[in-house]
Amino acid sequence: MSDHKALVLDEVRKYHQDVQPDGGFVPGVTEIWPSGAVLDADDRAALVEAALDLRIAAGASSRKFESAFARRLSRRKAHLTNSGSSANLLALTALTSHVLGDRRLRPGDEVITVAAGFPTTVNPIVQNGLVPVFVDVELGTYNTTARRVAEAIGPKTRAIMIAHALGNPFEVAEIAELAEEHDLFFVEDNCDAVGSTYRGRLTGTFGDFTTVSFYPAHHLTMGEGGCVLTSDLKLARVVESLRDWGRDCWCEPGKNNTCLKRFEYQMGTLPEGYDHKYIFSHVGYNLKATDLQAALGLTQLAKLDGFIEARKRNWRQLREGLDGVPHLLLPEATEGSDPSWFGFVITVAPEAPFSRAELVHHLEERKIGTRRLFAGNLTRQPAYIGREHRVVGTLANSDIITEHTFWIGVYPGLTEEMLDYVISTVKEFVEKRG
Ligand SMILES: Cc1ncc(COP(=O)(O)O)c(C=O)c1O
């Protein structure tokens, strides 16, 4: 490293110390965010170093992150993307590829998903001309069950795509078995659950694909970013092609002739020897991330175990502190799971003497941030009304979530003192109103 660079990075670390908030926690004044990035001097220095090196596009840091992250999540291949939503789009779109022959998903095929969740778990289904089949979830775990998924399988069903709700694993082993039995593709949206396990095995290792988000609310952050992971090398190649403009060539940017026959291909009706770098075998996108993002991802990844521990510890503190508070349904880990929590979900009992709006207002006024369980019942959102879909059973619990559920934070930036304040603030409200 040059002396000048070392000097700059040293100054960056000092600057990091300068800008650390020095005030302690002041109840009712200090914001208690529901989620946020936890960034240290290493993260700041990594970003600046990538900038000094002008690593402005996807390159060596992206590849390094992909290998390290694939290893960490026990998958053979990881492809970095510009968001978790892009990762979901790539995973599902890959299942429509001609490379899969007769197994490929075709317009009109059904994909089972849940009604209560994040929109971009479902959007790729619609965007690919497929039909979402919505099942309900359970209150408490906020996940669907293998039984509900089994009931939803019909003659046109070809895939399952579900997210682990706010870090809590769904019955992923049983649903993977169902997928296998019925020859269905299975995509696990693991955006909120990195580090969770089900029956001792990491979530994200059961499906054909798993996806992750690196938006600041998530377990690791790159600012914006995401990842598609798979252990199926054929599917991995399709994801790479779709992510990188649809090209057939797999040379890294700035590299040529990795396959050693760059000018020897004949595809489509192109002339013999057309440059493989410019042969497009998929109708693709450009959903790549940059090395600036990957550089941050690498320093964040080094802290993942600590982040996961903090999320679990914070969740436990809230769970124990709020246990027994009347009129509130507290979250439960899915049986057999060890969640790496994303948030702490609370449902106000529909018959409670106060409403969700009143409790949320009480918390927000005291600087305790709240969030909804994303879109609630997606079929009630304006974007989805009138779109082709199928509903299996009722969506009664998804409706309860839409009307009575919210979540508060457990991210590693929260302290024991902050969470004690959250607990006492909730209790104070319920005692007064209950
Ligand atoms: C379950 C789930 N899937 C997908 C996404 C989309 O990720 P991104 O915001 O990186 O596009 C989110 C975002 O929070 C999410 O919670």
Layout of strands and helices, then pairs:
Elements: H1 3-18, H2 41-52, H3 60-72, E1 77-81, H4 84-94, E2 110-114, H5 119-127, E3 131-135, H6 146-152, E4 157-163, H7 172-181, E5 185-189, E6 197-198, E7 201-202, E8 209-213, E9 226-230, H8 233-243, H9 291-301, H10 304-322, E10 328-329, E11 337-338, E12 343-348, H11 356-365, E13 390-391, H12 396-404, E14 405-409, H13 416-433
Parallel strand pairs: 2-3, 2-4, 3-13, 4-5, 5-8
Antiparallel strand pairs: 1-9, 6-7, 6-11, 8-9, 10-12, 12-14
Helix pairs in contact: 1-2, 2-9, 3-9, 4-5, 4-8, 10-13
Pyridoxal-5'-phosphate binds next to helix 4 and helix 5.
Pfam families: DegT_DnrJ_EryC1 (PF01041)
Organism: Streptomyces hesseae
Family: Belongs to the DegT/DnrJ/EryC1 family. L-glutamine:2-deoxy-scyllo-inosose/scyllo-inosose aminotransferase subfamily.
Describe this structure in words.
It contains 13 helices and 14 strands. The chain folds into 2 domains: 1-246 and 286-434, Aspartate Aminotransferase, domain 2, CATH 3.40.640.10; 250-281, no CATH class. The protein has helices at 3-18, 41-52, 60-72, 84-94, 119-127, 146-152, 172-181, 233-243, 291-301, 304-322, 356-365, 396-404, 416-433; strands at 77-81, 110-114, 131-135, 157-163, 185-189, 197-198, 201-202, 209-213, 226-230, 328-329, 337-338, 343-348, 390-391, 405-409. Strands 1-9-8-5-4-2-3-13 form an 8-stranded mixed β-sheet, with helices on both faces. A 3-stranded antiparallel β-sheet has the order 7-6-11, with no helix packed on it. It has a 3-stranded antiparallel β-sheet with strand order 10-12-14. Helix 4 packs across helix 8. With 434 residues, it is an alpha/beta fold. Bound molecules: pyridoxal-5'-phosphate. Pyridoxal-5'-phosphate binds at residues 83-85, 88, 118, 120-121, 163, 189, 191-192, 213, 215, 217, 226.
